[in-house]
Amino acid sequence: MPVHDTTAYIPVENVSWDFSDQVVLVTGAAHGQGASHAQRFAEYGANLVVSDIAGEMEHVTYDLGSVSELEETAEACRSFGGECLSAVCDVRRDDQVKSLVDRAIERFGRIDVLISNAGIATPSSIKDMPLSQWTETMETNLKGSFLFCRHVVPHMIEAGTGRIVLTGSTQTVGSINDLAHYTAAKHGVQGLARALALELEGHDITVNVVCPTAVDTHINAVFSDEAWSAEAGRLVGAWNFFQEEMIHEREITEAMMWLASREVSPMSGSTLMVDAGCMAK
Ligand SMILES: NC(=O)c1ccc[n+]([C@@H]2O[C@H](COP(=O)([O-])OP(=O)(O)OC[C@H]3O[C@@H](n4cnc5c(N)ncnc54)[C@H](O)[C@@H]3O)[C@@H](O)[C@H]2O)c1
């Protein structure tokens, strides 16, 4: 019997959060983990800013979020009673990121929490990887976090407080086959968090990284190839401690919410592995 049955996920009991009247911005919120993060913050009182590229990308072969899914996330957030601003925004585009942050500040006056979640995975060996594929991943998975930090941090400094949580991966500390660009970007996310944490010392603004193991979302459609999966599993030590290959997005959401809490101030520049023991092997 599995230790942890992810097919019948039961929300952790006796855990509650208070994000009343806080403003939380989540990128990549149309579906997957981002939609889960946004809805859970809304459930605990936050007003939300949700964004997504809601379109296609050159090297991505699986479904990215759509406009209708982004609206579904926004509606679900509003159903908890708070406000939600939704907007299409490509995290690679400085002008779009600045415009979204400006609109959020105009609407709510501040951004208390930044959850940088948008990301892609497009496996390829280095020898077969076109430069455009490298750039697409680096710009989405690393530059996107930099751009949001760059535009949100001045407002957090002005407010005297803030929480930033970036999304890493088990590839923040290790690697698997055909993911050099993804690995480089996710290692970079950790470096970005450490550097920014130092830069923000004394401001009550923390910057941390949550590193999920495989989560059951759209991105994993690219990893359905059995040979690839077997080799990747061998490299990371046969995946997780649990029987299932993937965990539920809510497991990641809870970690995000903990690091986003005002109460968690001694932790900054840290990397929290939510990896079911995967990288301990
Ligand atoms: N699912 C996993 O197994 C797993 C494991 C480790 C880390 N992660 C990371 O978790 C994060 C969330 O991924 P997910 O599992 O929810 O995948 P997902 O593909 O289900 O969702 C990703 C979302 O990001 C959006 N997005 C992609 N590129 C974008 C861009 N340039 N601008 C704006 N939005 C963009 C997509 O449209 C989509 O809605 C990513 O950073 C990913 O690298 C995922």
Can you characterise this structure?
The protein has 281 residues and is of the alpha/beta class. Helices cover 39% and strands 13% of the residues. The chain is built from seven helices and seven strands; from the N terminus they run βαβαβαβαβαβααβ. It has helices at 32-43, 67-78, 94-108, 131-159, 180-199, 226-235, 249-260, and strands spanning 23-26, 47-52, 84-88, 113-116, 162-167, 205-212, 271-274. It has a seven-stranded parallel beta sheet with strand order 3-2-1-4-5-6-7, sandwiched between helices. α2 (67-78) links the parallel β2 and β3. α1 runs parallel beside α2 (67-78). The longest helix has 29 residues, at 131-159. The two termini are 21 Å apart. The model has no long low-confidence stretch (mean pLDDT 91). Residues 27-28, 30-34, 52-53, 64-65, 90-92, 117-120, 140, 167, 169, 212, 214-215, 217-220 line the site of nicotinamide-adenine-dinucleotide (NAD).
